[in-house]
Every structure is written in C-alpha cells, then in structure tokens.
Inverse folding.
C-alpha cells in the first residue's frame, strides 16, 4: 500500500521548542523516507533556513496559506491574495514552486466551491487527509501517536494520506517508531499526488 506522510508547518497557538522540525527531518533522513511539507507563508519568512533544509532534504512542499486563516472566511480578493502571498514567499525562500499542492488551514474551505474554484484558478488542488491522529492536541503523547498513526494507516488496506504537524514534540518523538512500524508493513511512501 501507498502512504503519503504530510507535515503542516505553521505558527501554532502556543509556545513550541526550537529544533523540532530538524529532529523530524533527521528521522525521515535516517529512514530514507520522503514526505510532503505544507508551508505557511508567514512561517516560511520567519524560518527561511528550516524551509530550505526541508527542500534540500528532498521533500516536496505545498502551500499552507499565508496567514493560516480559515480560507472560507476570506472574501474573493483576500483569498487570492493570501494564496499568492504564500506562494511568492515559498518560491523566493526555497526556490520551489508549491503548485499544485495546497492545504486549507484547519481543513476549512476544503468543501467550499468558492474556495476550490479559486485554488483551481491559481493552479492548485486541495490535499486533504485520511488519517488524523490530532498530534496538535496539547495532551497528545508520543506513545499515543505511535499507536494511532500505524492503526489508522493499516485500518483497511487502502492507500492513505497522513496529517501530521512539524512542531509538536510528541510528533518528533514518535516519528522513528511510526516509520519503523510502517516500514515493517512494507508500506511505500509517496507524495500525495501519487495517491
Ligand atoms: Zn495548519
């Protein structure tokens, strides 16, 4: 089966520890796994070195909006401005065009025809997910993630896109075990466009 591991990078609503993204990159590198990172524009401007390391490590990048606002709450003009602003930042910082991958913050707008039409007009398609272990929850532990991610991926034998975030410490702590568990099941890691 095929699995697309995706990590959203963004400014969370609470303080985070530095270096978590690098720990995630090191675990992916050690396992020889390529993932996809959805970069928020503001985060990319604040963390240009980390954004470049993600690209240099061979991972794919997508657009996770500029302000990380619910896209269905933005008017037509703001919606396009936000998508383009993030795209310009990601291109200038990393040298990579994030099109055609876009992920709505909070998934808000992924079923909204107005949002989807704007994305299509700008060269994007929305990338959702099949497995969401809610790694952003404050009390989520690494042990829980080590169980929830493989259980969700292996639930029914279908290909899966997994939603993770690049900043929770529990995600960084759990990732080596998650990669081990999925590797033992002969999972093939692919970009989300391949699912
Ligand atoms: Zn997000």
């Amino acid at each position: 089966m095929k699995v697309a591991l995706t990590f959203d990078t963004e400014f969370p609503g609470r303080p985070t520890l530095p270096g978590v993204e690098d720990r995630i990159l090191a675990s992916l590198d050690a396992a020889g796994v390529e993932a996809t990172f959805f970069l928020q524009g503001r985060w990319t401007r604040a963390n240009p070195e980390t954004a470049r390391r993600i690209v240099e490590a061979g991972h794919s990048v997508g657009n996770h909006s500029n302000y990380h606002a619910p896209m269905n709450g933005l008017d037509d003009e703001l919606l396009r401005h936000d998508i383009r602003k993030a795209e310009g930042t990601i291109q200038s910082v990393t040298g990579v065009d994030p099109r055609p991958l876009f992920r709505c913050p909070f998934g808000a707008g992924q079923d909204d025809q107005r949002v989807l039409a704007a994305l299509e007009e700008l060269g994007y398609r929305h990338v959702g997910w099949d497995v969401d272990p809610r790694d952003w929850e404050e009390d989520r532990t690494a042990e829980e993630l080590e169980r929830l991610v493989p259980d969700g991926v292996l639930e029914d034998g279908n290909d899966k896109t997994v939603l993770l975030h690049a900043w929770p410490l529990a995600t960084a702590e759990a990732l080596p075990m998650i990669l081990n568990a999925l590797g033992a099941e002969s999972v093939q890691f692919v970009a989300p466009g391949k699912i």
